[in-house]
Design a protein that fits this description.
CATH topology of one domain: GMP Synthetase, Chain A, domain 3
Structural class: alpha+beta
CATH class of one domain: Alpha Beta
Distance between the termini: 58 Å
Strand content: 5-15%
Oligomer: single chain
Largest sheet: 3 strands, mixed
Number of helices: 6
CATH architecture of one domain: 2-Layer Sandwich
Length: 156
Amino acid sequence: MLIIKQKSEPISQMKSFKMMLGTTQPMASLKDNLGKQQSLLKRIRVLLPKPVDEHCIWSLQKNRDLFLWADSPAWASRIRYFSAKLIQKLCQEGLDVRYVRVKVALTGRQHPQSKRPRRATPLSSANMRLLNAVAESVDDDALRSALMRLSQHGAQ
């Protein structure tokens, strides 16, 4: 068993997260990059038509590539449709973009799971009789057996 001892500090000596975020160079750089990405996302959302803009959830520019994330495959397709116009508008605003790459970031809220399992629809009695008749006329034993088992899945 691994026991980790932590040095406890009085509350008066503890640093706030905001203070820690701004004091170290790597954290300040991360904060700056995050701000730039959020600013870019706001610019992109202004350029996209409603309601497509609401489904563009993140953006990132690497060199001349612009990466956009949508909240579902359907909305990603719609964003791709507007990518040529988006490049043109961003270039007019002075942003050097040559390619737009749209990805899907599933957040878990798009596909709610059903609470109860789906039940198979039972066969009608007419379909049961038809499967039995076909099974009796088939020469292959394996196929005949499978059709007979399938015909038993009817309404009881």
